[in-house]
Amino acid sequence: MSQFTSAKILVVGGAGFVGGNLVRMLLGKEPRQVVIVDNLLSAERFNVPDSPGVIFIEGSITDDTILRSFEDDLDYVFHLATYHGNQSSIHDPLADHENNTLTSLKLMNHLKGFKALRKLVYSSAGCSVAEKTFDQARPTTEEDPISLVQDSPYSISKVIGEFYSVYFHRQHGLPAVRARFQNVYGPGEVLGAGRWRGTPATIWRNVTPTFIFKALQGEPLPVENEGVASRDFIYVDDICRGLMACAENGTPGDVYNLASGRETTIMELANLINDLTGSRGGIASMPARPWDHSGKRYGSTDKASRELGFRASISLDEGLGRTVEWTRANLPLIRQCMEKHRRHVGE
Ligand SMILES: NC(=O)c1ccc[n+]([C@@H]2O[C@H](COP(=O)([O-])OP(=O)(O)OC[C@H]3O[C@@H](n4cnc5c(N)ncnc54)[C@H](O)[C@@H]3O)[C@@H](O)[C@H]2O)c1
Fold first, then answer.
1. How far is the CA of 19 from the centre of ligand 1 (A)?
2. Which residues pair with 259 in a beta bridge?
3. How far, in Å, CA of 168 to CA of 165, rounded?
């Protein structure tokens, strides 16, 4: 028996990469019902599990008719909706506002009086908090100050979601817990998933799936700025376990890093992926992206370990190995999703 057994759970953005994995993990806990609301902006319908325990509502959580359909019988809410990702948000800040800020505000405003709700978990981003440095990184803690200088509307929206989580908790007792993700990778992140969002980043999403796809084709991996930037890569099963730990043990109003605590440079990642796939494509050196000042970063794991009992358990080698296998097995599907954007990039 877990706290999710027999629970009614809403997953906003549940057709996405993390959301789809989370829903599948939750279903293993035998909830009463999992309701997914997703407008398929950066997701595909096939990622919604075909299960009698799942109800899928296709649409935006900002839609009043959808919001009003939720009554005070939800036990848990996971809010994962976002306008994916940094570059798309720079291209269209208003679309980011609609799908990354308004989503949080309208959802929390609707849930604020709910008495049955045990926890709302908001998926925030460690990148909004991390110090922008190319010197030695130190682990970002939950107590670090949040700068007013942010690289993208995406990042601003993630901070605003945190502001509202804290506000609705203090003002209305909403049991909101903030989970600050580091860089998630793993099976289920489909390149090109969803609708065109104005830039080729619609297709290429994050660094890990991009490198794995290119390596499997034997192409050189595009490494910017000599690959000196570093990230904290966390496997998607660990993130899902961390989100569930936030729901089970997180203190309302509080915030927790979901991190591996391990720093990996982009060059290390590229070399590891070339080794794992046996690619002879090597590395293609690229200039730094002008908007990206993020540099080096990784998250502190102390608070989540101490207060939630959460520690990431899948090593980068193991997680990348699994992701390479999943990508290899799903190449036709992934190519199909990438292909539908071809006319936009004029290839
Ligand atoms: N993946 C990472 O490395 C990472 C890092 C930091 C934070 N996060 C956060 O985790 C969450 C999940 O990220 P992901 O990687 O699974 O991204 P994703 O793009 O796969 O998932 C986001 C989902 O939200 C849906 N969505 C967009 N607008 C919506 C709306 N108006 N109403 C309902 N659904 C909407 C999308 O269609 C998609 O399914 C996001 O909030 C993201 O900001 C992710």
1. 8
2. none
3. 6
Which residue from 310, 171, 179, 169 is spatially nearest to 252, judged by alpha carbons?
169
pTM, to two decimals: 0.97
- Which range (4-13, 14-23, 108-117, 292-301) has the least confidence? 292-301
Distance (angstroms) between ligand 1 centre and the Cα of 137 equals 26
Q: What does the pLDDT look like over 175-217, one tens digit per residue?
A: 999 999 999 999 999 999 999 999 999 999 999 999 999 999 9
Q: Which atom of ligand 1 is nearest to the CA of 102?
A: 31
Residue 239 Cβ < 6 Å to ligand 1:
no
- Which residue puts its alpha carbon closest to atom 18 of ligand 1? 16
Domain ranges for the chain, please list them: 8-188+233-262+294-315
Atom of ligand 1 nearest to the CA of 19: 16
Alpha-carbon span 137 to 164, nearest angstrom: 29
CATH number for the domain whose boundaries are 8-188+233-262+294-315:
3.40.50.720
- Identify the pLDDT of residue 150: 93
For ligand 1, what atom is nearest to the CA of residue 126? Answer: 6
Residue 183's beta-bridge partner residues? 233
